[in-house]
Amino acid sequence: MTRFAALLRGINVNGITIAMNDLRGTFEGLGHTGARTVLASGNVLFDTDRTDAAAIKAQIERALSDTFGYQAWIVLIDTGSLARVVRDYPFDPGREGWHPYVVFGTAPAVLGELAAEAPGLDPAIERVVAGDGVLYWQVLRSVGITSPFSRMTGKARYRSTTTTRNLRTLDKLLGAPPAG
Question: So what CATH class is 2-82?
């Protein structure tokens, strides 16, 4: 049995509202067990005995799209890998006045394209470092979503392959007790 985190992109914003009970029910309807939502921003933990992550991802995206009537995109990561991503965060996550983020992606070429912009960023405002299948990003809190990197990751062409989470959200995912 493997525990996964499904990181949904774009729910409970821009008119796409999904109740967490309904979201959890969708995962359970697919045969996954221990489904648990964490926060109301599209984070679902679940267990499965299936091993084909690509097939699981495709099945979940299809079910979300069919059930809730929007184009669903998720990043699927097992909790062991998620723990490694959090452990390897290269910046001081408690740095006063800064937000610690991780950008997850399903297309290595897209993450590479975004990482290629890192040398041009102003380190007084934000920093980006490539990790194993993710980008680590730290941004000045007062700049936040208006930063150059934030504006870049928000472009439509990246929506289907990337999603960003605050490191504190990832800690909550890892610390969430099993459903039940």
Answer: alpha beta
Determine whether domain 88-175 maps to CATH 3.30.70.1260.
yes
Residue 104, CA atoms < 13 Å, CB-side half-sphere: 22
Distance CA 42, CA 20 (A): 8
Residues of the chain with CATH 3.30.70.1260: 88-175
Share of the chain above pLDDT 90, in %: 80
Q: Are 114 and 103 in contact (CB under 8 A)?
A: yes
Amino acid letter for position 60? I
pLDDT at 40: 77
| Residues 56/76, Cβ–Cβ less than 8 Å | yes
Please tell me the pTM assigned to this model.
Answer: 0.93
Q: What is the pLDDT of residue 104?
A: 97
Q: What is the pLDDT of residues 59-84, one digit of tens each?
A: 999 999 999 988 899 999 999 999 99
Length of the chain equals 180
Q: Token pair of 60, please?
A: 């979940």
